[in-house]
Amino acid sequence: MKIATFNINNVNKRLANLLEWLEESEPDVVCLQELKAAQNAFPEDAINQAGYDAVWVGQKTWNGVAILSRIGEPLVTCRQLPGDSTDTQARYIEAAVQGVLIACIYAPNGNPQPGPKFDYKLQWLERLRKRATELRKMGAPVVLAGDFNVVPTEFDIYPTKSWDKDALVQPEARAAFRKLVGRSWTDALRELHPDERIYTFWHYMRNRWERDAGLRIDHLLLSPNLRDRLMAAGVDREVRGRENASDHAPVWIELSE
């Protein structure tokens, strides 16, 4: 099973890019973030014609998450991250696909920090940790996939001081990510590429793509019962260099049956 995550940064604006990548890469399951589309504006017909069923939570202008599958319709188990009934941001959807529970995640950016947006980010990551623990204890194979908006270590960002005040690299955000991963979850990309600088996001400004000035903020975390099934993991970097590209590249893993 090939599972991918892709922050598409406006699904309608970049639909052609998405469809081209789906045809080339042929992932079985895809988690999309930052749809930037209202619920009724998601391009379901085009996705269906590409061979994928889809479930999604849309939101006008910002946010939005979706799970696509070409190996059976995703069975939704949750459309909002538990723990705060007042949170209306479309950042989480969870569905079962062929016996694997997939959580699609678009964590808050948290800027500017310090401030309420950063506080929300940390609270949201703690809610995610609690949900992840619940899912793990259920015993089903689980993949947490998406844009976590955290650079886990200095090794996951190009050598620079220009991001030092950004929420993505703050000690509190990194500590929250470490607490989430803990001793149970496997960071799939880092598991198979422990010594390689791998980036998944390159800001549009200051020629950061051309300079390979990237960050690793898109992650796939595996529950303990999936660790031995991890066969391959990578980033489709070239997608970031195409015309009208998202500022993220797709990240994928392959699991044995």
Topology:
Elements: E1 2-7, H1 15-25, E2 29-33, H2 44-49, E3 53-57, E4 65-69, E5 75-78, E6 92-97, E7 100-106, H3 116-138, E8 142-147, H4 171-181, E9 186-187, H5 188-192, E10 218-222, E11 230-235, E12 251-255
Parallel strand pairs: 1-2, 7-8
Antiparallel strand pairs: 1-12, 2-4, 3-4, 5-6, 6-7, 8-10, 9-10, 11-12
Helix pairs in contact: 3-4
Can you walk me through this structure?
By secondary structure, the chain is an alpha+beta fold. The chain has one domain (2-255): Deoxyribonuclease I, Chain A (4-Layer Sandwich), CATH 3.60.10. It contains five helices and twelve strands. It has helices at residues 15-25, 44-49, 116-138, 171-181, 188-192, and strands at 2-7, 29-33, 53-57, 65-69, 75-78, 92-97, 100-106, 142-147, 186-187, 218-222, 230-235, 251-255. Strand 3 and strand 4 (65-69) form a beta hairpin. The protein starts with a strand and ends with a strand. The active site is at residues 106, 147, 248. Keywords: Hydrolase, Magnesium, Manganese, Metal-binding. InterPro entries: AP_endonuc_1 (IPR004808), AP_endonuclease_F1_BS (IPR020847), Endo/exonu/phosph_ase_sf (IPR036691), Endo/exonuclease/phosphatase (IPR005135), ExoIII-like (IPR037493).
